[in-house]
Amino acid sequence: MQRSKLETFLGTLEKATSLDALQQLTFALKDLYHVDHVVYHWVSADGEQYGAGTYDRLWVQRYIEKDYVRVDPVVVGCYQRFHPVDWKRLDWTTKTAKVFREDAIAHGVGNQGLSVPIRGPSGQFALFTISHSCKDDEWTSFIEDNRRDIILIAHYFNQKGLELEKSRVPAPNQSLSPREVDAMTFLAMGYSRAQVADTLAISEHTLRVYIESARHKLGALNTTHAVARAMNRGLIVV
Amino acid sequence: MQRSKLETFLGTLEKATSLDALQQLTFALKDLYHVDHVVYHWVSADGEQYGAGTYDRLWVQRYIEKDYVRVDPVVVGCYQRFHPVDWKRLDWTTKTAKVFREDAIAHGVGNQGLSVPIRGPSGQFALFTISHSCKDDEWTSFIEDNRRDIILIAHYFNQKGLELEKSRVPAPNQSLSPREVDAMTFLAMGYSRAQVADTLAISEHTLRVYIESARHKLGALNTTHAVARAMNRGLIVV
DNA sequence: TTGTGCCTCGCTATTTTGGGGGAGTTTGAT
DNA sequence: ATCAAACTCCCCCAAAATAGCGAGGCACAA
What we know:
2 copies of one chain form a homodimer.
Chain A: H1 2-14, H2 19-32, E1 37-43, E2 49-53, H3 57-65, H4 73-79, E3 85-86, H5 95-106, E4 112-119, E5 125-132, H6 136-168, H7 178-188, H8 193-200, H9 204-218, H10 223-232
Antiparallel strand pairs in A: 1-2, 1-5, 3-4, 4-5
The structure holds a DNA duplex.
């Protein structure tokens, strides 16, 4: 029964082809699991933020205006954790957090919540949240029953989100030669040019050629930039 | 039926308290799903690697000795993706990949596999892999049936792994101050010190203080290293 | 055969970083 | 109220990285 509810939803999700569709699906999910809110919110590699969810428009706008993303204990907490986080376990004691919480509840965000942090390559970060307004024990038993469903949904939601995002930004995936990869890798490990040249047993002059050609391929302004881009594109592993 | 198999396993996993126990559980899993191998392998924030799995000891040793982690298309591919990857979809055409594959199969690694990449805060990266030796269509139907189970198991396995790792290395999760984050971010974007100082509207001398303190906090040898670490640990998003 | 890309080595001059000092204000938390 | 941490500014000088020129050999593909 639970299983088929999940299956049905994942089947629908599979067919989504736009961000609007994702938005619709958060509403479907909210009804399916009888909770107040379902929100999916992510930060792409270039730092842009996207969101899909059932929160009130006014709240979303207020959240952005007040730059609550830097205050919200849910976001701050999830950035530092791996596993899904029950809002109860977060630190709501600071002054800013208290103010935020009051404001959030006033705008219809539930007092209970579970947020699943998800990370992708190149620093993508996503948060899938279910929130509700109810007593503690009621919420605990809901979570116990649905935790696994929620994890899976978060996972597939994010997969779909990344897929849709990727289609709008086609990546020009220029690759590096083996020596260039070596060079970038050691530089990312903090070696100086002299040390890298020594490690690779080549002259420093040769090394410089690699660094410069890597810089050109990556369209980077300097070594640090090149290393950052190589890491972002998954070309080197440090 | 499927569901209860999964439930039972997750219950057992929950009780694991050591890396040895995780190792045992990979064998249990392999029998439970009737596959050749189950491997969990992760890289902690400081770059150390751990593993638990059913692979032959000789193969693991060889893998480390030959630094196959930089060649293995599974690892390279998963670093760049978010979703679980069927080995068939990876790029096995390069010369080094072909050599690696032959060596792997000779050591009993299956010809089929599914790997789930998982990322944690502070740059942890884990890979949960199921491999098997069989025909393509047989594998495809196995994956279709068990994909969701595998994702959940990967998730819980990783949660347990991080938990066990944390107990051995109390994370010095040094965070950066807002200005330090700003500095690192612009440096990662290729700006020179002068440009960053200009952008942040502070003197270059002040900027240097931030860069140096960020370097110290991150235990980095130079600016490039500091930026690489900040990116790896998810402290900056570029 | 004639590219094209990769690997290797060289020079000089200029710009950018790094390491060592010190000193004051503002802000937030206990 | 007090204390720590963050933010801001200044000096000097050595070390390292960058930019602009070169060159030749090797392998693989059109």
